[in-house]
Amino acid sequence: MFTGIIEDIGIVQNITRKQEIIFLSIMAPKIKLEDSQIGASIAVDGVCLTVTARTASVFTANIMPETFRITSLARLKRGDKVNLERAVAVGGRFDGHFVLGHVDRTTSILRRYQDQTAQVLVFKIPVGLETQIVTKGSVAIDGISLTVIYADSRTFKVGLIPHSQQVTTLSNKTVGAYVNLETDVLAKYSVKQMRANQF
């Protein structure tokens, strides 16, 4: 489980592809990887991956076919920057919202504009997720815990404060760029329960 509070911006060192399987190596400049054992979880752009090997500053992970198909990680290239967060420690501070690292779908940036110090980004809501994204609710975009400023049936907006602009990759993504979207887990269960009660 994660909080959506990004710890580091990693740099993709190496990518090996075999059909829909990816072997990925990422440099983590700030994270102390000595604290992450083999088998530990690290969210890469919001995708929960398992550490399969590590040095003091680089870890490797395997991406399975489902992750290849559903997330933006299949688009990564050597040198790309990614948001990193280690799984939350038991008893640790929980500052964002419950983020599982289980990406629902990718979506794209439709528009971006400045609102004083905030950068506002407008995204398309993927088909089937309309009821899981609500105004003032929570979403994770590329692993970043964000509050939905506004949502209708087709689009939603989030805002990046200056701190988030500096410590995540999202402020540098252009219109049309694909990002990983994870809706609030509470919304998922609420929608399922409501549908079950209709029968």
TrEMBL record:
Catalyzes the dismutation of two molecules of 6,7-dimethyl-8-ribityllumazine, resulting in the formation of riboflavin and 5-amino-6-(D-ribitylamino)uracil. Residues 1-97, 98-194 form the Lumazine-binding domain. It comes from Liquorilactobacillus capillatus DSM 19910. Pfam families: Lum_binding. It comes from the Bacteria. It is an enzyme of class 2 (transferase). Coiled coil: none annotated. GO terms for biological process: riboflavin biosynthetic process. PROSITE patterns: LUMAZINE_BIND. Keywords: Repeat, Riboflavin biosynthesis, Transferase. InterPro entries: ATP_synth_asu-like_sf, Lumazine-bd, Lumazine-bd_dom, Riboflavin_synthase-like_b-brl. This is Riboflavin synthase. It catalyses: 2 6,7-dimethyl-8-(1-D-ribityl)lumazine + H(+) = 5-amino-6-(D-ribitylamino)uracil + riboflavin. Its EC number is 2.5.1.9. Pathway: Cofactor biosynthesis; riboflavin biosynthesis; riboflavin from 2-hydroxy-3-oxobutyl phosphate and 5-amino-6-(D-ribitylamino)uracil: step 2/2. Lumazine-binding repeats lie at residues 1-97, 98-194. Homotrimer. GO terms for molecular function: riboflavin synthase activity.
